[in-house]
Amino acid sequence: MHLLNARGGGLAFCVFESAPMEAFWLSLAIVFLAELGDKTQLVALCLAARFRAAVVLGGVFAATLCVHLFSVGIGAGAARLIPEAYVRIAAGIAFIVFGAWTLRGDSVDSEECGRVNGRSPFWITFITFFLAELGDKTMLSTVTLAAGRAGVPVWLGSSLGMVASDGLAIGVGRIMGKRLPERAVKVGAACVFFGFGVFSAVQGASRLPVAVWGTLLAAAVAAVMLLAWARAERRSVPTASGERAEEVAASGRTVV
Fold first, then answer.
1. Together in a domain, 104 and 217
2. pTM of the predicted model, to two decimals?
């Protein structure tokens, strides 16, 4: 697949940036890592404790294909409308956020898991996972990956990465009777996200014109100064309750 660029205002609008296989393997690896310890993986483990693992993974794969098809569409549309440099910077920032999200971790209430009911294990898994995946880190990662990369490889790679990650967690749980080492997995995945995010952001920033760099730098300085001023104002102005407490203390009366 060829690189298609449209020039506008000195900036490139990137449609397809990487080769299909590169996009496929990158998407598989990134989503595989993003899914480790994620809320949707905990949902898959919960369902696998009640139903056959093969049925659960089939439902996970079908639901992921549907959600990530939508995600790829959003990412591809953004790449056609936004200059390539800004797409790279936004993607870098997004991956850094995903790294922090990974370190924070997710949880699923056992009662919430027990409320999942229905007759067909496949459709229970499909609907539950579909709803859990909407707005989740892995869905947003797919949106970011699809911005500037071939859509179909990203779609298939990200979907298979989800199934591989959940299958690994279910398999380890079944065979070894325990989960993957949570802390080590979180730190390792977060480091990959941070590194990939910084690389993408720097790569995009290096393509910006000098005038844009100056504008962004001025905006960043103004934002820091505004934040510092807001914090100083908040500390210098006492609250109404604080003022009343001081007045009462000075008069020697008791607050009713």
1. no
2. 0.64
Kindly state the average pLDDT of the residues 50-67: 90
237 and 133, same domain (yes or no): no
Number of domains observed in the structure of the chain: 2
Is 146 a domain residue?
yes
**Residue written as token pair 């001025």:** 218
Dist CA 123 CA 13 (whole Å): 40
Domain range for 184 is 5-208
Give a yes or no: residue 46 inside a domain: yes
Q: Rounded distance, CA 24 to CA 92, Å?
A: 19
The predicted-structure confidence for 60-118, as pLDDT tens digits, reads as follows: 999 999 999 999 999 888 888 877 777 778 878 888 887 787 777 656 555 555 555 65
CB 92 within 8 A of CB 199: yes
Residue 39: Cβ-neighbour burial (10 angstroms; 0-12, 13-18, 19+): middle
Check residues 11 and 68 and name the one with the higher pLDDT.
68
Q: What is the mean pLDDT of the chain?
A: 76
